[in-house]
Task: inverse folding
């Protein structure tokens, strides 16, 4: 596997730390060698693999869908109402629909909607350097998984094509579904109950439930990802923790607090000072997005 | 891949139906061809892949562990107390312990305990013909998963070695876990809350959540597996439904009602009459268990 496998990464400490880690755990003669079945890597999605500003893509989807359903909600109402208003919006837009219908609705939206102000389809708002990292890890025998606060069903509508991950490796928050025999046969209906909000200390529990193995790589960008990074760091194997810092107000956004929910980045950055790898978007990435589609 | 890949199956209709199905969905020139990523097969565990009589292995484990913890419960108390007593037993024996400690405890028990009256370790109570079927499907590009009412953590303590499945493909009932920073660092503690009882109509929801794809093969043995089989049968692809019938009082057990919980087999057998493949253990299997270990 010759050539630069991370061409959108500048030759900085972040890239060096990834290269050293991958060499150490995949070289059979290395003291840090980890067998392929144990090479588990977990990634947050919003703000780690794609842009989460000015609002999460899934929230933009929900607002559009609420309007389409005749119950428009504004971003201002949402900011004022906080979590209860957000939960109401999710119930309105993500329930009372079969899983097949919901997937079709997500796909239609993802194909048609454009990110303001970049004017790109949302699936083109993924970070090219992170796509290269996913591919590099995959070529080196890693199983990459997404563990994110976003909805599992929403993410799966694009993640397989965009990230190259099978649906079972894309895990987020989960709404309850109900099995019933409908007019067209058996179907699963999404209902308004939220089974899991996959954020913070819930993430290690979800990893245990869905993977059943301790990861050796974790990547995140806010305090909601801290537990997942701590859990990974405590593996008996050599591990790699990646913390994405949004420092690029020109090409992406510069911020230290995620949109809407306001989860900060203080704890994760404090932890990163203890030896985790910080990715400074402005400094470490030569390209942020792939060439305009 | 020459030779008989199912040597423990007699030359009966069941074996024929498996062979025909596998040929139809894996031959590129077949009208029923299914691409490898969509070849998902789901299996119940207790009574489908291994013996569930005289009581589920996990229940034998729980009874032994309760005695070890100084709170012995008898099988008679359990039968008299029904579900509430069972839930209390699970809380006593499956909670207040880290996931690492629980796994170690399961492994110790699985190595030491013997099945009455067969005198074998429980992992040697798996059905040799089903091991051959799992291997056959694996060789033909299928991803085999277990979806069972048994506990995920208990099953994973032996399923990888015995069935050759990675932990993420072994899904059962789930107790809640809590992330905390303990004296030795980050850990997950199992608590007494039961998040999911993975039986009946819950199974298609669990498959959606953990796989995110519709299976094309499903195997079960009681009415608790009916929804999973119906869900699979409704796939747009050609599918295979397998219903294991316990007809072999000499080599295994002959019964139509599962132990303890008493879930029947009436509905699943009625459904099987509509074209599903019934596996009659006495008639269809030349060997039930592998040679004595």
Result:
């Amino acid at each position: 596997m010759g050539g630069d496998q991370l061409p959108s990464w500048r030759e900085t400490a972040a890239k060096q730390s990834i290269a050293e880690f991958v060499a150490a755990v995949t070289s059979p003669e290395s003291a840090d060698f980890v067998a392929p079945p144990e090479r588990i890597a977990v990634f947050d999605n919003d703000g780690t693999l794609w842009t989460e500003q000015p609002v999460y893509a899934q929230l933009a989807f929900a607002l559009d869908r609420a309007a389409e359903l005749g119950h428009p909600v504004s971003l201002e109402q949402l900011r004022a109402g906080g979590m209860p208003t957000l939960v109401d919006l999710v119930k309105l837009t993500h329930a009372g629909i079969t899983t097949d219908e919901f997937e079709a609705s997500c796909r239609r939206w993802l194909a048609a909607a454009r990110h303001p102000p970049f004017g790109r389809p949302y699936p083109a708002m993924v970070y090219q350097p992170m796509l290269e990292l996913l591919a590099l890890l995959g070529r080196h025998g890693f199983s990459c998984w997404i563990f994110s606060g976003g909805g599992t069903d929403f993410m799966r509508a694009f993640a397989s094509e965009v990230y190259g991950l099978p649906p079972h490796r894309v895990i987020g928050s989960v709404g309850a579904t109900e099995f019933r025999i409908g007019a067209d046969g058996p179907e699963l209906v999404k209902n308004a109950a939220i089974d899991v909000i996959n954020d913070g200390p819930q993430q290690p529990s979800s990893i245990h439930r869905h993977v059943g193995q301790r990861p050796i790589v974790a990547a995140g960008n806010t305090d909601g990802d801290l537990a997942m990074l701590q859990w990974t760091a405590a593996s008996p194997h050599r591990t790699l923790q990646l913390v994405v810092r949004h420092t690029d107000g020109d090409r992406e956004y510069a911020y230290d607090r995620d949109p809407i929910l306001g989860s900060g980045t203080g704890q994760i950055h404090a932890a990163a000072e203890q030896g985790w790898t910080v990715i400074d978007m402005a400094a470490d990435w030569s390209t942020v997005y792939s060439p305009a589609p």
Summary: The mean pLDDT of chain A is 94. The first strand of chain A starts at residue 40 and ends at 43.
